[in-house]
């Protein structure tokens, strides 16, 4: 089994999102949308050939429907099909996830004439991260596939091959955005990427837990709480799915506080 966690630049129009969900086919296991971010995360999981089929179908529907010129949202983005990472649920098949990424990148760039940046293991033996792509795209970094400049309507795409990652947010009430940025910087480390974003009356500490079994949600929750000179954590928010191993690593008494449950595990959605 392989996972593909597709981030698209649309989180407001439910009719559009429902149509994209249909396009994602039998591989679709979860959809998370945020209207303020104007972004959705589609989690697709299936065997290799079925997953490739459904990823292509969702990509076609996204490219044919969305227009970056009309997009407004607080989350950073550079394309309508913004980020497309492949994950081997069996680590022994990581090389196959890289192959899926590379095949999809070539197909996407050829079919839609959009620039595509790769992240994860590269052919020269180095590794590039998604933050590397966001910082360097079209400045210090040339596309790996496609034209040298972004498409006006579609933008560009970042295609990755990576390990399991948990996207998880804390919604904090009563602090400034500058305070939030200081907190996000304080919790940032090799295992955690973090940003502070303004979301209505909240400041959101948006986290990607790169090694969630080493640094999990409870660790970040407690650190953020300890850093709050004022304000309070209103709630936590899981984006997408988690492996059951992470759920079992957390105290069940805190699952609700951390927005975790068995129903939100990869294993539950594959039954």
Descriptive overview:
With 271 residues, this protein is an alpha+beta fold. The chain has two domains: 2-161, 2-Layer Sandwich (Formiminotransferase-cyclodeaminase, Chain B, domain 1); 166-269, 2-Layer Sandwich (Alpha-Beta Plaits). It has eight helices and eleven strands. The strands form two sheets. Strands 2-3-1-4-7-5-6 form a seven-stranded mixed β-sheet. A four-stranded antiparallel β-sheet has the order 9-10-8-11, with helices on one face. α1 packs antiparallel against α2 and α2 packs parallel to α3.
Strand line-up in the sheet with most strands: 2-3-1-4-7-5-6
CATH-level-4 superfamily name of the largest domain: Formiminotransferase, N-terminal subdomain
What structural class do you assign from the helix and strand content? alpha+beta
Tally of discrete structural domains: 2
CATH architecture of the largest domain: 2-Layer Sandwich
Question: What is the general shape?
Answer: globular
Mean pLDDT: 97
From the N-terminal CA to the C-terminal CA, the straight-line distance is 13 Å
N-to-C order of helices and strands = EHEEHEHEEHEEHEEHEHH
């Amino acid at each position: 089994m392989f996972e593909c966690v597709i981030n698209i630049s649309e989180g407001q129009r439910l009719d559009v999102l429902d149509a994209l969900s249909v396009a994602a086919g039998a591989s679709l296991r979860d959809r998370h949308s945020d209207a303020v971010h104007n972004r959705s995360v589609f989690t697709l999981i299936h065997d290799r050939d079925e997953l490739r089929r459904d990823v292509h179908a969702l990509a076609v529907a996204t490219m044919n429907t969305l227009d970056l010129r009309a997009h407004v949202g607080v989350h950073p983005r550079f394309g309508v099909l913004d980020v497309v990472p492949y994950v081997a649920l069996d680590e022994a098949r990581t090389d196959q996830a890289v192959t899926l990424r590379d095949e999809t990148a070539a197909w996407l760039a050829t079919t839609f004439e959009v620039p595509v940046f790769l992240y994860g293991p590269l052919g020269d033996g180095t590794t590039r991260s998604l933050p590397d792509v966001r910082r360097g795209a079209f400045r210090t970094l040339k596309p790996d596939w496609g034209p040298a400049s972004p498409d006006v309507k579609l933008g560009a795409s970042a295609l990755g091959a990576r390990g399991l990652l948990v996207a998880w947010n804390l919604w904090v009430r009563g602090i400034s955005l500058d305070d939030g940025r200081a907190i996000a910087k304080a919790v940032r480390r090799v295992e955690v990427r973090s940003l502070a974003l303004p979301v209505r009356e909240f400041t959101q500490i948006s986290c990607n837990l790169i090694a969630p079994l080493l640094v999990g949600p409870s660790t970040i929750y407690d650190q953020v709480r300890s850093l709050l000179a004022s304000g309070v954590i209103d709630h936590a928010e899981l984006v997408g799915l988690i492996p059951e191993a992470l759920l079992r690593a957390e105290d069940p008494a805190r699952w609700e506080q951390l927005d975790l449950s068995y129903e939100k595990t990869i294993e539950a959605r594959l039954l």
